[in-house]
Write a structure and sequence with these properties.
The complex is a heterotetramer of chains A (766), B (562), C (523) and D (100).
Chain A: H1 14-26, H2 36-56, H3 60-65, H4 70-93, E1 106-116, E2 129-137, H5 139-162, H6 173-192, H7 196-214, H8 221-252, H9 257-262, H10 272-289, H11 298-301, H12 307-316, H13 320-327, H14 330-333, H15 344-365, H16 371-398, H17 402-444, H18 471-485, H19 492-510, H20 515-540, H21 557-579, H22 582-586, H23 601-613, H24 618-643, H25 655-664, H26 673-676, H27 679-685, H28 690-738, H29 743-765
Antiparallel strand pairs in A: 1-2
Chain B: H1 7-12, H2 14-28, E1 36-38, E2 45-47, H3 56-59, H4 62-84, E3 91-92, E4 96-97, H5 100-120, H6 139-153, H7 155-174, H8 178-196, H9 203-234, H10 239-247, H11 254-271, H12 279-286, H13 289-314, H14 325-344, H15 349-372, H16 378-410, H17 424-427, H18 429-443, H19 449-465, H20 474-480, H21 484-508, H22 524-539, H23 544-561
Antiparallel strand pairs in B: 1-2, 3-4
Helix pairs in contact in B: 2-4, 2-7, 4-5, 4-7, 5-7, 5-13, 5-16, 5-23, 7-8, 8-9, 8-13, 9-11, 9-12, 10-13, 11-13, 12-15, 13-15, 13-16, 14-15, 14-21, 15-16, 15-19, 15-21, 16-18, 16-19, 16-22, 16-23, 18-21, 18-22, 19-21
Chain D: H1 4-24, H2 28-53, H3 56-87
Helix pairs in contact in D: 1-2, 2-3
Classes of the chains: A mainly alpha (766), B mainly alpha (562), C mainly alpha (523), D mainly alpha (100).
């Protein structure tokens, strides 16, 4: 990619895509009415890319100019992005169409999908019911929509550099881009859907794409296996989700948000037990999709997919679907606004699942050496944070503590935003590392590739000291890690603080049972500090651990640009958006009376800082500072003791990065060999044996049972038929024996027959 | 009631008359030669035509065949005329009556014989002047010469027997007097015994003839004895007289019942009811296929005519169940099951068809026994008789058809194994397709006529019985329904069972061919006939032709029951 | 008139074309296959056009939404063919049969396309045409005798398709297929005859006309009604097929040629469900209500048990065949819900499965055709060699496991919603079966098109001695059309959904609701 | 004049002997003779009935039945002869070429 400058001419097709929104706006189309474009553009791009790729593979235009479909995908995603931004801007402006009448929502219906009647228990028929398709826009939607469209676009951009330069992907990239845009369509659709059914439909489409993309390297046994595992595990959740939908439908006679959310208690007549089960089923679906305990096993394996896929689907967007679904449960429990009381166990369950997953994932991340796996567990852990936050929020809502609930809800959503940005970027950065290490390795072993297959470019034990080779990547990764760890003032800090604090508040002030999640998230904060630092140190600090490192250098601009953009957002976005009141804005659909902004900008800044570092409640102050201490000091220092180290003499990197690397060498080094051989470590390395036991359960129950069923079908059910047949033949042979061939026997039979006629006649008539 | 035959009677009996004349002609003409009789004391030689060296025309082995064909065609025309334009009074003496029923049956018999005759053309040798075997021939050439000779010299005998068979059957259909009926039956039977044993040079021929003859004779002896008991009982053997005596009978007279029962044995043998059917497979497999076809269709129809006369006209009480209905029901179930089961594992196609014809007899007997149940209204009775007559008619198509196919293959000497049919589909797709149609029709698969006829019979049974049960659960309904209903179930299950061997027969044609040639085994006329029979099997199954034939059968049924 | 043409024309043309080789002059006999298949395709496409037009007239002159239950469109004047027993040629269509007619007219040309270069094509394609006519005949017949005739007639071409163009064990399979379904339908025939008996008090009053037949239930005692319903169930359930009378299906499918399998799964199985709704449910609503638990049991057994058996299969086609059994279970479940939504879902399931399963069998057939084996696991990484095939497999498999935005999902979700309304938590069983379904589908894909451990080529079966190619253009075209329709009807189901929904409502309002009320079954 | 019922009784006995004879004897000729016995039993019945009812047709039946019996014997002997010429036996049990 030497003359990569010229590559930008490839972006020409983006210009018409960019023009679509202005043209529509000038033509007077309302932004919400154009929302279908967000879904439609990638949906059209999908077959176009797939089929043209299949037809034109190998042709120079297709390969060089269209980047095997990447440019087409990028254009369609740009259409989605620009439309999404258009709607967002309209929404923020408070345009006429998006009024705030319904608490800041807007719904537009597109088509009636299916319609039918229902027979009631008094044998009367209800009038026609309709399940339609439409859009539902509120601030949560918009935030997720922006995250999704923005990251899809950036990661597609990144992929142009990442995928198209790998010779193994040649003539296969069209598949990648096609599935990529199909995924984008699923994600956009899910976010925009105005009812639970279509949410579910797009949800499943995402699952399909996740399956396809994990299995992109389909010839690899591990990839094919991981793809299947991901699909099946989420499918288990999805089935429960579907059952939840059935129950919801039964309760409300509709699945549309506008119908259900208008009065989720139907004047207090809703049976809270039934609703609890419905929501619990939905939550199981969310657990599957967001890889929470106990359906988390698929996510680490999903890293078999290409890195952009991990970045987009398994870190930034799809896994957020579960969170989104749980966020949509708020109106059900919001007792202040027609919610159904008595559902606070649901909040507890959500919070516990979140807490357990956060802790578990963080601890497993301690011992992972694969850079993507660390990030995967980190994703799990951070999502679990958000779940905890949402659980607490649900609990608050259900107990009428609307203010606190609103704050933690907004905080959770905000964490979702921060995490998506940071994690997307981290994955891309790790992708950059892997890509370059891989290329360097190829370069090094150009002639013979004897140990080609033994070398794992994702293994951090082959890295070290990369900070000097990859300054931009290392800086980006640093910022991303800081955001995840929650280093004060940077990205994730703002949202994580809110979650931890409110969880403790719930635990201390109201519900002792909340202590569990509370302590777990607190501990996890420190652990996050450790494993993220460990990853960074292992990769970028210290002496190179493999000869390959010497040959690594950053090359492709397609990769660098998204990193830079996201670094900026991660670093500044948290604080900046906090200041503009994003937390309350995000909670807008579910908070009906909170003011949005303080009087002046400066007041707002002060308020936010005060709120973060010096809250009124002394307990929260302690909790807040403990969190900061654990994540900022304890975790990173331990990490530095184990894995830190200065760069080789004479090599430098960016300013902050160099200092950090130098700092890491100052804490001395600690040998953890003994620790890493303990049984706990062993267990952690084996992912606490979850996969093992799931596998065992499958192979000991499902498969034998299936074999048994097949045997039963063959031998018993079909066997009966065959038995009838063979017995008929047997009977046939027997009965033919009577035809002896002796004429006198025949005569005898005639006589016998004559006699039996008499006997029968006598018997019947007598 | 006149005791003399007049012109009208002759016209009524025109088919039989034609056959008689033809019979005489076939006896005489092939023997015509250049023999001359020297008038004694002179040297004048007067040609007497009988004997001597035969003329080329008269010694042509194809001649009897042509003559038979001509005779039968003329008879068919006469009989069709009678059928389409029924005489106002068909009484001939007090023993015969020509009505719709007997005309239809006569037509049926003659059609079967025509088919048989046409099929027999395939047995004619290509060389009419084949030499007779002489001393010193080796075994092989001797047997080939014998075979040629066999075909050459005995055509006339064969066709004479066919015509006597036809004569017996058609007269029997017209008989309204039990003794007349029996005599005609004997005429037909005796001819058929000889036909079965016609291939006297082969081991099978003699044996088949012997068995068929012995068992048949015993059965008819029992029948005649039964008839004599009936005579003993009423002193009159005319059907109407017996019927009146029966209706006026206070309670069942054991002698009368015994008489009917014993006649049932004789007729049961004719139709092939178990357990009197045992000789039938042997007979079919030992004789030539076309004769077997005649036995399976015409002869069976004859048996049913006799059964109708005996059971429906004579032995029907004025009300209530007939004494024979339970017996017949049991026999019918045994017959169909036995037939189907035995056919299942047979490997000889002729035996398979023999058993299949036994099974079909069972279906028809089941229908007949439903009439005797005493719960059938007159309309329902007529419906069932119509169904059975219709079945007998269409049976000619799809039972005679396969025998004609087999007859074609028989020339190649491979008709005794199912595998003889292998590859027929590639040799002659049309004949194979027709054969398949016959199989499906036999099995009762729509849209072929076998389905319609079987459906009509089952429908008859259901019609008689379905209204009888009444209860609120399946079980109580099943116990309260008239047992006749279960006959329908038996027929249906047996149809399913029969599918096995029909399909097997149908399937082997699509297997890889044996070594036998590539060309069609049939000659063009036979082939055309087979194909048109298949088409008719379809046409009589659904659509206007079936309506027409059903109309005829309906009239016939009405005539029989009136 | 239109419907008569739809059913009789293909039969007539097919039969004539089969005689063509015997009629054509010598010079043309080498091209007989080409001539025949072009004519066949032309006729089939014409039928598709006609039936599409008939369906599309719902937009203009015929309002399919407003046919009262028991009313039919495109009806002809009944024409007596066997007056002695009251049989007449009477055809018509309603919202129940119209989608099926269209489906038949669609699947047949596609199956012809997929096997465009079949051996002995001059018999093959006409047979498919005959098959089409017979199947359409089943759907249009408004005379139960004619219905039954067509019903059985479909067996004959299929028998030959299996027997002549089938796999190694085709003889056994053809026999089993024929005898099994024949047996079941003759049992059904008794039921039909009992109904016929009750259509009038004297023989001349009786008639096989559908309307008279469907009213006959009123004349029967309750026990007899149940019995007849049960007899009909045997016939229809075997055709569907439902556990435990399903074992003919895997054998028939595995041995049948691709086109045969496509038609068998796509349309023939639907005849069972169609007949059940058309005859058994309509004539005996009370029995249907009373035996709802039986239907639930049969449906559940087919669905769950079928799925388990699928998982134990190692033959691709066998697995797909069992998956049909499994999916057909949903139809019984849908009917058993006694909700318009459930019945409409069952109807849509018939339609959706009618599009999806031909795709599955086309894919399986392509494996057999190009790789000469159907053993799962005997080949790996086929996506390297046959990307189109792999793509179609992916699409078909995903559609069949109920992925949203594909036709099957609409039906599934409708049935499940209705099922919950009626049976509550029992819904977990069908719902969890969806996971099982996913397991076997994904596993079979993993072991055929994926996993070769070589980035450039797959592990081919040992028996394959040449370099495999991707599927031919005609296979590809057929599969693509099916796949596109699957997605089309998944996203926009309302073309047929609306009329199905309306029909279901009407049948509920006019029959089942009353029956439930009188039997004391609460919805 | 003998009471016709005695004649009929004789007929029953004859018939019984004939019937038993047909399946106890293996020799074709003997079986043929037994069949003749049965036919004659029928004839006796006809005669008895004719006597009883004074119906002349009974005598006619008898005469014709005798003719039938004669024809039957003729054919039977011919068939047995052909059996003998091909299989060398007239034992009904020995001829079993045609059993399954």
């Amino acid at each position: 990619m030497g003359d990569s400058g010229n590559e930008y001419r490839l972006l020409m097709p983006l210009i018409p895509a960019l023009l679509i929104v202005p043209v529509l706006a000038i033509a007077g189309v309302e932004s919400v009415d154009a929302a279908f474009l967000i879904v439609l553009a990638p949906f059209i791009a999908f077959p176009v890319i797939l089929i043209s790729g299949q037809l034109y593979n190998g042709k120079p235009t297709w390969k060089e100019t269209l980047k095997e479909g990447g440019v087409i995908g990028l254009s369609s995603l740009l259409v989605s992005l620009s439309t999404a931004v258009w709607i967002l801007v309209d929404y923020l402006r408070g345009a006429r169409e998006i009024s705030e009448d319904a608490g800041g929502r807007v719904a537009a219906s597109w088509i009636d999908w299916i319609s039918f009647d229902v027979l009631h228990s008094d044998y009367t028929m209800s009038s026609e019911r309709i399940i339609g398709v439409g859009v539902w826009v509120d601030s949560v939607t918009l935030m997720l929509l922006f995250v999704a469209t923005f990251l899809c676009f950036l990661i597609c951009w990144f992929s142009l550099g990442y995928m198209n330069t790998d010779p193994i992907n040649e003539d296969r990239n069209h598949r990648f881009y096609a599935e990529f845009v199909l995924f984008a369509m699923g994600m956009f659709g899910m976010v925009l859907a105005d009812n639970f059914l279509w949410l579910f439909i797009f949800w499943e489409i995402m699952g399909l794409c996740s399956y396809l993309l994990i299995g992109f390297y389909f010839w690899k046994e591990s990839a094919a296996y991981a793809a299947k595992k991901a699909f099946l595990t989420t499918r288990v959740g999805d089935v429960f989700l579907m059952v939840g939908l059935l129950i919801l439908y039964d309760i409300y006679g509709s699945l549309e948000f506008s119908v259900i959310f208008a009065d989720p208690s139907i004047n207090g007549t809703v049976d809270s037990d039934k609703l609890f089960w419905a929501l619990l089923m939905l939550f199981i679906g969310a657990v599957g999709k967001s890889a929470q305990f106990p359906l988390h096993v698929w996510l680490p394996d999903a890293m078999e997919g290409p890195t952009p896929v991990s970045a987009l689907i398994h870190a930034a967007t799809m896994v957020n679907a579960g969170l989104y679904l749980v966020a949509r449960m708020v109106p059900f429990v919001d007792v202040g606004h027609h919610g159904v009381p008595g559902l606070d166990e649901l909040g507890l369950i959500v919070a516990y699942i979140g807490g357990i997953t956060a802790f578990m994932a963080a601890s497993i991340a301690f011992v992972q050496n694969d850079i993507k796996k660390v990030l995967a567990y980190s994703t799990m852990s951070q999502l679990a944070y958000i779940f905890t936050g949402l659980g607490v929020s649900l609990w608050f809502y259900n107990n009428g503590k609307t203010d606190a609930a609103t704050l933690v809800f907004g905080g959770s959503m905000f964490h979702l935003f921060n995490h998506a940005m940071a994690k997307g970027m981290l994955f891309m950065a790790s992708g950059s590392v892997i890509h370059e290490v891989h290329h360097a390795h190829d370069h090094l072993h150009e002639g013979g590739d004897h140990d080609h297959h033994d070398f794992d470019p994702q293994d951090m034990r082959n890295m070290g000291g990369l900070a000097s080779k990859m300054p931009i990547t290392s800086a980006a990764m640093m910022i991303g890690s800081m955001s995840i760890i929650g280093i004060p003032l940077i990205g994730g800090f703002w949202s994580k603080e809110a979650i931890v604090a409110k969880t403790w508040k719930a635990s201390l002030d109201y519900e002792p049972l909340m202590f569990g999640p509370a302590i777990l998230v607190l501990l996890t904060a420190g652990m996050t500090g450790f494993y993220m630092s460990r990853m960074w140190f292992m990769t970028f600090a210290g002496e190179p651990k493999h000869e390959v490192v010497e040959h690594v250098h950053e090359s492709t601009p397609w990769i660098k640009e998204p990193l830079v953009i996201l670094s900026i957002i991660s670093a500044l976005g948290g604080f900046g958006l906090s200041v503009f009141g994003i937390v309350k804005w995000l909670a807008k659909p579910y908070s009906y009376d909170l003011g949005i902004n303080k009087d002046s900008f400066l007041d707002q800044v002060v308020y936010e800082l005060e709120h973060a570092f010096l809250p009124d409640d002394p307990n929260l102050r302690i909790v807040g500072w403990t969190t900061i201490f654990l994540s900022l000091v304890i975790g990173p220092i331990f990490a530095a003791r184990v894995h830190g180290g200065s760069l080789r003499e004479g090599q430098t990197s960016g300013p902050l990065v160099s200092w950090l690397v130098w700092l890491s060498g100052k804490f001395g080094s600690q040998d953890v060999t003994e620790m890493s051989q303990s049984s706990l470590s062993e267990a952690l390395q084996n992912r606490l044996y979850f996969d093992h036991y799931y596998e065992l359960a499958l192979s000991k129950t499902v498969l034998p049972f299936a074999t048994l069923a097949a045997w039963f079908d063959r031998t018993v059910i079909d066997g009966i038929i065959k038995k009838v047949e063979s017995n008929s033949v047997l009977g046939s042979v027997q009965i033919r024996r009577v035809t002896t061939g002796r004429a006198s026997d025949y005569i005898l039979m005639v006589a016998v027959g004559a006699l039996s006629i008499f006997a029968l006649a006598w018997g019947v008539s007598g | 009631m006149t005791s003399e035959l007049d012109g009208i009677d002759l016209q009524l009996l025109l088919p039989e008359l034609v056959m008689t004349l033809g019979l005489a002609a076939i006896i005489i003409i092939p023997n015509l030669g250049d023999a001359k009789f020297r008038i004694p004391l002179t040297s004048l030689r007067v040609p007497v035509l009988i004997g001597g060296t035969r003329f080329p025309a008269t010694r042509d082995p194809r001649l009897p065949n042509w003559m038979t064909l001509a005779t039968l065609s003329a008879a068919l025309a006469a009989s069709t005329m009678a059928l389409l334009d029924p005489p106002s009074s068909g009484q001939v003496g007090n023993a015969l009556e020509v009505d719709q029923f007997s005309s239809l049956l006569t037509n049926l018999f003659i059609c079967v014989l025509i088919l048989c005759t046409v099929s027999a053309t395939q047995r004619l040798p290509s060389d009419p002047d084949a030499p007779a075997p002489s001393e010193g021939d080796d075994e092989e050439s001797e047997s080939s010469k014998t075979a040629a000779l066999y075909d050459n010299r005995r055509q006339a005998d064969f066709h004479i027997l066919l015509l006597t068979l036809g004569l017996g059957m058609s007269l029997m259909a017209k008989s309204t007097h039990l003794f007349m009926l029996f005599v005609c039956l004997e005429l037909a039977s005796l001819s058929s015994y000889v036909l079965v044993g016609f291939h006297k040079e082969s081991k099978e021929g003699g044996e088949a003839g012997t068995k068929y003859f012995i068992v048949g004779s015993v059965a008819s002896a029992i029948g005649i004895y039964g008839m004599s008991l009936l005579y003993l009982w009423s002193g009159d053997l005319s059907v109407s007289g017996l019927s009146q005596s029966w209706q006026s009978m206070e309670s069942l007279d054991p002698i009368a019942a015994a008489g009917v029962g014993m006649m049932l044995v004789a007729f049961g043998f004719k139709v092939g009811a178990a357990p009197f059917h045992l000789a039938i497979p042997d007979a079919y497999s030992g004789t030539s296929s076309m004769v077997a076809g005649v036995l399976a269709t015409a002869s069976k129809a004859m048996g049913f005519v006799a059964l109708f006369r005996l059971l429906l006209t004579i032995a029907m009480p004025a009300s209530g169940p007939a004494f024979w209905y339970g017996t017949l029901a049991v026999i019918s179930v045994i017959t169909m099951t036995w037939g189907n089961l035995a056919a299942l594992s047979s490997d000889n196609p002729k035996r398979v068809f023999a058993y299949s014809s036994v099974a079909h007899a069972g279906y028809m007997l089941a229908a007949v026994s439903a009439i005797g149940s005493g719960i059938a209204e007159p309309a329902a009775q007529e419906l069932i008789v119509m169904a059975v007559i219709f079945h007998l008619c269409v049976l000619v198509l799809f039972k005679m058809g396969p025998f004609m196919v087999l007859s074609s293959i028989e020339r190649e000497g491979s008709s005794h194994r199912v595998s003889g049919l292998n590859g027929l589909a590639s040799r002659d797709p049309l004949v194979a397709a027709s054969m398949f149609v016959f199989m499906l029709s036999l099995a009762g698969v729509p849209p072929f006529s076998g389905f319609l006829s079987k459906l009509l019979m089952i429908n008859g049974i259901v019609t008689v019985s379905a209204g009888t049960g009444g209860a609120s659960t399946i079980l109580s309904w099943a116990t309260s329904v008239n047992p006749v209903f279960w006959l329908a179930v038996a027929v249906v299950l047996n149809s399913a069972l029969s599918m096995f061997y029909y399909l097997r027969m149908g399937m082997v044609m699509f297997f890889e061919p044996n070594e036998d040639g590539e060309s069609s085994p049939c000659n063009p006329v036979v082939r055309a006939l087979i194909v048109s029979m298949a088409i008719l099997s379809l046409a009589f199954g659904i659509g206007p032709p079936s309506e027409w034939l059903l109309g005829l059968a309906e009239d016939a049924a009405a005539a029989l029951l009136s | 008139m239109i419907l008569s043409i739809l059913s009789l024309l293909p039969i007539a043309v097919g039969l004539l074309l089969m005689a063509l080789p015997h009629i054509l002059p010598e010079g043309l006999s080498s091209q007989v296959s080409a001539i025949t298949r072009n004519i066949c395709m032309g006729v089939a496409l014409a039928l598709l056009a006609i039936s599409t037009w008939a369906a599309a007239t719902s937009l203009s002159d015929i309002d399919w939404m407003n046919i009262d239950f028991g009313g039919y469109e495109l009806e002809n004047t009944p024409f007596e063919i066997i007056p002695q027993i009251g049989v007449s040629w009477h055809v018509g269509a309603d919202a129940l049969s119209l989608p099926m007619i269209w489906l038949t007219a669609l699947v047949v040309p596609l199956s012809m396309l997929v096997e465009w270069d079949a051996k002995k094509g001059h018999y093959f394609h006409p047979l498919l045409l005959v098959m089409e006519g017979a199947m359409i005949g089943v759907f249009v017949a408004l005379d139960l005798f004619v219905f039954y005739v067509f019903w059985e007639m479909t067996l004959i071409p299929m028998f030959f398709l299996i027997l002549v163009w089938g796999g190694e064990d085709r003889r056994y399979a053809a026999m089993k297929f024929f005898i099994y379904t024949f047996t079941a339908s003759v049992v059904m025939l008794i039921g039909i005859l009992v109904m016929y008996f009750n259509t009038g008090s004297s023989i001349s009053d009786r008639s096989f006309d559908m309307i008279a037949m469907l009213d006959s239930g009123g004349q029967m005692s309750e026990g007899l009604r149940h019995l007849v319903w049960f007899l009909l169930l045997i016939g229809f359930a075997t055709k569907m097929p439902s556990v435990p009378v399903h074992t003919w299906l895997p054998d028939a499918h595995v041995q049948a040629p691709t086109a045969g399998s496509m038609i068998l799964a796509g349309v023939m199985l639907k005849m069972g469900a169609y007949g059940f709704l058309r005859v058994a449910v309509t004539a005996f609503p009370a029995s249907t209500v009373v035996f709802t638990p039986l239907l639930v049991f049969l449906g559940m057994a087919s669905l769950a048990y079928g799925a388990w058996v699928c998982m134990g299969q190692s033959n691709l086609k066998r697995m797909v065949a069992y998956s049909s059994v499994s999916h057909m279970g949903l139809i019984f479940l849908g009917i058993a819900t006694m909700q318009p939504l459930g019945i409409a879902g069952a109807l849509f399931m018939m339609f959706a499965h009618g599009i999806i399963s031909p795709l599955l069998f086309a894919v399986a057939g392509a494996f057999k055709h190009h790789y000469h084996t159907l053993e799962i696991g005997s080949m790996r990484g086929i996506a390297h060699h046959s990307p189109w095939l792999a793509g179609h497999m992916m699409l078909g498999w995903m559609a069949s496991l109920g992925l949203p935005m594909m036709a099957g999902f609409v039906a599934e979700v409708a049935v499940l919603i209705a099922f919950w309304m009626t049976f509550g938590w029992l819904v977990l069983l069908p719902a969890l079966t969806l996971v099982i379904t996913a397991v076997y589908y994904l596993t079979s894909m993993q072991r055929t098109i994926f996993e070769s451990n070589d980035p450039h080529q797959g592990n081919l079966p040992d028996t394959l001695h040449h370099e495999p190619r991707d599927i031919t253009w005609h296979e590809n075209a057929g599969m693509t059309i099916l796949g596109a329709l699957t997605i089309l009807f998944g996203i926009l189901p309302f073309f047929f959904w609306d009329m199905m929904s309306y029909w279901s409502t009407e049948v509920m309002v006019q029959l089942l609701a009353d029956a439930m009320q009188s039997e004391g079954v609460r919805p | 004049m003998i009471d016709p019922s005695w004649i009929a009784a004789l007929g029953v006995i004859l018939f019984g002997i004939g019937l038993l004879g047909t399946f106890f004897h293996k020799n074709g000729i003997v079986v043929l003779m037994c069949i003749e016995l049965m036919l004659n039993a029928a004839n006796l019945n006809f005669v008895a009935a004719a006597t009883h009812y004074g119906d002349v047709s009974g005598w006619v039946f008898t005469a014709i039945a005798i003719a039938i019996a004669a024809a039957e014997v003729a054919i039977g002997l011919a068939i047995l002869l052909s059996l003998y010429s091909t299989q060398g036996t007239i034992s009904l049990d020995a001829a079993r070429e045609l059993s399954n």
